[in-house]
């Protein structure tokens, strides 16, 4: 069958819209009609070359839609099911899934190669085989994905909101709740209030933090943070540091969550300075794969028992945490409608990413037309 998709052919060049060929689902695979896709920063890392991926690649790793067809052996979903796609697949049987760490499932090792198990590429076109971002390629009208990437959701959930729970919402929410282990009365600093950071703010607030300090240079991002749970918001880390010191009577924050678009040593150092004894710095944002982005005084790390940890998908388990977070949305405890700034057609994908990089959007959504 044919599908229209947004493709990156060369790092640093605009994303192109192409009509491509899509195979039907084989054993363990699912054909999904995507209805919505999220514009998430990680796709920018691919198109800009910050993350080295196999090209050409159909972008998009936040997706929601309806199952059209399933291949032999599929048990997780059935035709007609509404699904949210998890950007990290979960096999359920590898060492990490079996110990409750689905976010580092062994199947996720190939998400930047873009093929399904067995090095299968369901998408083809004028330049041969096309990978799919995170084995999903949600910037396509249709996709063939592995059942381990599909999470069934309630039919009455609005998929244009639920789509965000495939990556950005659990990544931010979990960075606070799971990785930083925010507790009632804590002081939390969040550096960068984009699509992930705004959900770290929501997560910290939901977990009972007394103070949630948001740091972002853009006024609209700071305003959104204050609307959704932050108690203080500042344009710079230096301004925030003075207030954190005052609020905590010199003790420092309990945790700092780094969710800026490109992590560097400066912001990591700011977070490390902000936390006090026993504090934790959670690094959720990305940069080039092997770029050195941490330069800290190890003696202070030791004497103050601080820790610096990475967080992938907010340490969430997709099969349980995607429905759980959507349940919090249904109960009004997590806001999704309020973080969506604008919707785009697939043909407007470059405009959408320009808006993201220029700070106009907290979250943008692609609406697929069928």
Question: Mind explaining what this structure looks like?
Answer:
The relative contact order is 0.16. The protein has 370 residues and is an alpha/beta fold. Strand 15 (275-283), helix 9 (298-303) and strand 16 form a beta-alpha-beta unit. Helix 4 (168-179) packs across helix 5 (197-206). The chain has helices spanning 41-48, 95-98, 159-162, 168-179, 197-206, 219-227, 237-247, 265-274, 298-303, 318-330, 349-357, and strands at residues 2-8, 16-22, 29-39, 57-58, 63-70, 82-85, 123-125, 128-132, 142-146, 150-152, 187-191, 211-215, 232-234, 253-258, 275-283, 307-310, 340-345, 363-367. The two termini are 14 Å apart. The protein has 11 helices and 18 strands. 26% of the residues lie in helices and 26% in strands. The strands form 3 sheets. Strands 3, 5, 6, 9, 10, 17 and 18 form a 7-stranded mixed beta sheet that branches. A 6-stranded parallel beta sheet has the order 13-12-11-14-15-16, with helices on both faces. A 5-stranded mixed barrel has the order 1-2-7-8-4. It is globular and about 65 Å long.
């Amino acid at each position: 069958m044919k599908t229209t998709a947004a493709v990156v052919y060369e790092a640093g060049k605009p994303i192109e819209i192409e009509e491509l060929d899509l195979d039907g689902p084989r054993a363990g695979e699912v054909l999904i009609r995507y209805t919505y896709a999220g514009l998430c920063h990680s796709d920018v890392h691919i198109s800009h070359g910050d993350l080295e991926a196999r090209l050409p690649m159909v972008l998009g790793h936040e997706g929601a839609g309806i199952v059209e067809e399933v291949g032999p052996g599929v048990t997780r979903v059935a035709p007609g099911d509404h699904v949210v796609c998890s950007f990290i697949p979960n096999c359920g049987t590898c060492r990490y899934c079996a110990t409750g760490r689905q976010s580092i499932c062994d199947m996720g090792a190939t998400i930047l190669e873009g093929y399904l198990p067995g090095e299968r590429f369901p998408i083809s076109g004028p330049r041969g085989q096309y990978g799919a971002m995170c084995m999903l390629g949600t910037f396509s009208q249709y996709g063939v994905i592995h059942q381990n990437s599909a999470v069934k959701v309630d039919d009455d959930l609005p998929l244009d909101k639920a789509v965000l729970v495939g990556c950005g919402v659990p990544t931010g929410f979990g960075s606070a709740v799971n990785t930083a282990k925010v507790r009632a009365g804590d002081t939390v600093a969040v550096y960068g209030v984009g699509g992930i950071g705004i959900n770290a703010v929501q997560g910290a607030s939901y977990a009972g933090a007394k103070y949630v300090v948001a740091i972002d240079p853009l006024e609209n991002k700071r305003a959104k943070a204050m609307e959704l749970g932050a108690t203080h918001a500042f344009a710079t880390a230096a301004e925030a540091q003075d207030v954190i010191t005052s609020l905590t009577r010199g003790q420092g924050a309990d945790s700092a969550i780094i969710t800026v678009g490109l992590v560097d040593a400066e912001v990591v150092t700011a977070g490390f300075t902000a936390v006090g004894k026993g504090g934790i710095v959670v690094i959720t944002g990305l940069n080039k794969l092997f770029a050195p982005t941490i330069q800290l005084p190890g003696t202070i790390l030791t004497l103050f028992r601080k820790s610096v940890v990475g967080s992938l998908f907010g340490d969430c388990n997709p099969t349980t945490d995607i429905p759980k977070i959507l349940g919090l949305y249904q109960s009004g405890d997590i806001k999704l409608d309020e973080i969506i700034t604008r919707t785009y057609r697939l043909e407007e994908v470059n405009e959408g990413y320009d808006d993201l990089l220029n700070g106009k959007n907290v979250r943008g959504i692609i609406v697929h037309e069928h």
